[in-house]
Amino acid sequence: MTRKFKEEAVIIRQEEIANDIYSMWLHTDQIAESAQAGQFVGVYCRDGSRFLPRPISICEIDREDQAIRIVYRVAGKGTDEFSYMRTGMPLYVIGPLGNGYPKRTEKAFLIGGGIGIPPLLQLAKELDCEKEIILGYQNRQVFLSDQFEQYGNVHIATQDGSLGVSGNVLDVIRDKQLEANVIYACGPMPMLQALKRYAQEKEIECWISLEERMACGVGACLGCVCKSVHKDEHTHVNNKRICTEGPVFDAREVEIG
């Protein structure tokens, strides 16, 4: 298991890259050295009334400069507080947390939906294979797509049909008749459920990253469990802790509908 660190990181830079979507680079002394694609960090608010850290996926890792990038949506008071922070400000962070994506060498689909897109960027950089990258957005407010273009063939779907293929990520696969041997995905639950069914039909490997509200983020509180096919070694029931056994799972191992 990856060793976790709690440290005072320093904001290198921050910018709004779409409506209420922010990109923040953080200098860390230790987290960047051991972080893996698909893992996340817990970011602590400076406001002491908000005690628990906010779980945010790691978007990019710069080991040479000891930095990580997080991309988050303003969804509550905690992330709203982060959005007002500026270069040079300190921020306590714990991580890296959870398990990342395994790296295969077969042709891959990298499929992200909404705020589930950012954690796939580091994976796209690290995978040594042919990649079809499918990104799903609500509308023309896209983000990160230009950076993904450096690492594979990028296809865009928008729910309102304003850009790319009209519809969802599976509509892109069908419309362009794309094929791959393994799926890596992160996004809303309906998307992951559909991809699990697609992978079963095609008999291909599928790795999904689950999102869930978390409290401790380190597996102690059992507040972020999902149903699993096999019994968990910690609880001895058919549960998996998303913060520790996940957030990345073999889709065959979890019951998500």
Automatic annotation (TrEMBL):
A Gene Ontology BP annotation from the UniProt entry: 'de novo' UMP biosynthetic process
Gene Ontology molecular function: any one: oxidoreductase activity
CDD domains given in the database record: DHOD_e_trans
Domain FAD-binding FR-type residue range list: 4-103
Top-level division of the source organism's lineage: Bacteria
Ligand binding (FAD): 54-57, 71-73, 78-79
The UniProt record lists the keyword Flavoprotein: yes
Entry keyword Cytoplasm: no
InterPro entries the record matches: Cyt_c3_hydrogenase_gsu (IPR012165), Dihydroorotate_DH_ele_sf (IPR037117), Dihydroorotate_DH_Fe-S-bd (IPR019480), Dihydroorotate_DHASE_ETsu (IPR023455), FAD-bd_FR_type (IPR017927), FNR_nucleotide-bd (IPR039261), PyrK_electron_transfer (IPR050353), Riboflavin_synthase-like_b-brl (IPR017938)
Record's cofactor remark: Binds 1 FAD per subunit.
Residue positions binding [2Fe-2S] cluster: 216, 221, 224, 243
UniProt keyword annotations, A-Z: 2Fe-2S, Electron transport, FAD, Flavoprotein, Iron, Iron-sulfur, Metal-binding, Pyrimidine biosynthesis, Transport
Cofactor(s) demanded: FAD; [2Fe-2S] cluster
Entry-linked HAMAP family: DHODB_Fe_S_bind
Function: Responsible for channeling the electrons from the oxidation of dihydroorotate from the FMN redox center in the PyrD type B subunit to the ultimate electron acceptor NAD(+).
Family (UniProt): Belongs to the PyrK family.
Protein name: Dihydroorotate dehydrogenase B (NAD(+)), electron transfer subunit
